[in-house]
Amino acid sequence: MNDTAILIVGVGGQGTLLSSRILGEVAVAGGFDVKLSEVHGMAQRGGSVVTHVRFGQKVYSPLVGAGQADFILAFEKLEALRWARYLKKGGLIISNTRKIPPIPVTLGLQKYPEDIDEILSSAASTCMVDAGRIASECGSVKAVNVVLLGVLASRLAFEKELWLRAIRKIVPQNTIEINTEAFNRGYELLKG
């Protein structure tokens, strides 16, 4: 596996940091050097949160520059659009279909773009997932992040058991079953 750069983006409270910890754990268990960098922008108030994750034989910086991300894992559609310019040619955006209007939209100062799906699909390869529905079916809407992580995992060359082991190690003990099911559902989504 070549050096891989991934942006995990969302809003505060969606589990971007938990997802980056799971991904980092998997990459380390897979024998790679891993660097993570978390950026919180008013995360406690639903603001933008982005985590840069890079892994490879030797990684010197966690930061992913514009046009360098192999994958963008977006837990909210507007965040996918906001960070799309960081995707490299041939990269993939995996995004939740959920809309979470930012504060300027809720205050009526701006409008939430209605054509995000079309903009993203015209600029890059995309995989739009109704992760909220899948997570709810698994027992908790909070498992959206793990559903999307499962979709990403199906595109990476790590053994599935490494992912499941990392999930068991990192998620709260009382949510292991829900998160395992959420991961498996996401993992199988693009198969077949």
Summarize this structure briefly.
With about 190 residues, this protein is α/β, with parallel strands linked by helices. The protein contains eight helices and six strands, in the order βαβββαβααβαααα. The longest helix is centred in the first third of the chain and has 14 residues, at about 15-30.
Number of domains: 1
What can be said about the biggest beta sheet? 6 strands, mixed
Radius of gyration, CA atoms, in whole angstroms: 16 Å
Structural class determined from secondary elements? alpha/beta
Low-pLDDT ranges: none
Order of helices and strands: EHEEEHEHHEHHHH
Tell me the overall shape.
globular
Name the CATH superfamily classification.
Answer: Pyruvate-ferredoxin oxidoreductase, PFOR, domain III
**Share of residues in strands:** 15-25%
Quote the CATH topology: Pyruvate-ferredoxin Oxidoreductase, domain 3
Q: Mean of the pLDDT scores? A: 91
Total of DSSP H or I helical runs spanning 4+ residues: 8
Strand order of the largest sheet: 2-3-1-4-5-6
At CATH's second level, what is the architecture?
3-Layer(aba) Sandwich
Number of strands: 6
Which range best describes the helical content: under 10%, 10-25%, 25-40%, 40-55%, 55-70% or over 70%? 25-40%
Which CATH top level class fits? Answer: Alpha Beta
